[in-house]
Each structure stands twice: as structure tokens, then as C-alpha cells.
Fold:
Amino acid sequence: MSTKLTTVFFLLIAGILSSCGTSKKLEAANSQIADLQSQTSQLSSENSQLNSKVSSLNKQVSDLTAQNKTVNDQFTSYK
Structure:
């Protein structure tokens, strides 16, 4: 009887200890998820800013290309 009681006691303790480990793993995973969501938000914001900058630079390229064509046309007419 006492060996059965001891066995049940150890199984109960093992169950409690393993559930504590699972709780810590879950907490760590949730923390990691929160960190990754924060990083995702930050990277999305940076991506939007960079896309805006790319658009601005592309407009500058178009404007400069048009100016270059105008100057080349004027140069050709002055020859």
C-alpha cells in the first residue's frame, strides 16, 4: 500500500513539475511572438518610408532625364 501511495505521489509531483515547465515555455513563446510582432510593425513602417523615398527618387530621375533631353536638344540646335 505504501509503495502504491509513494508511486502516486511521485507521479503527481512529476505531473506538476512538467506542467510548470510547459507554462514557462508558453510564456517564453508568447514573449517571442510579441517581440516578433513589434519587429514586424517596425519593419513595415520602415518599408513604407523606403517605398516613399524610392518614389521620390524615381520622380527626380524622370525630371533630370527630361532636363537632360532639353539641354541636349538645345545644344544640338546651337551647333
Q: What stands out?
A: The CA atoms of residues 22 and 56 lie 51 Å apart. The longest helix spans residues 2-78. DSSP finds one helix and no strands in the chain. The mean pLDDT is 86.
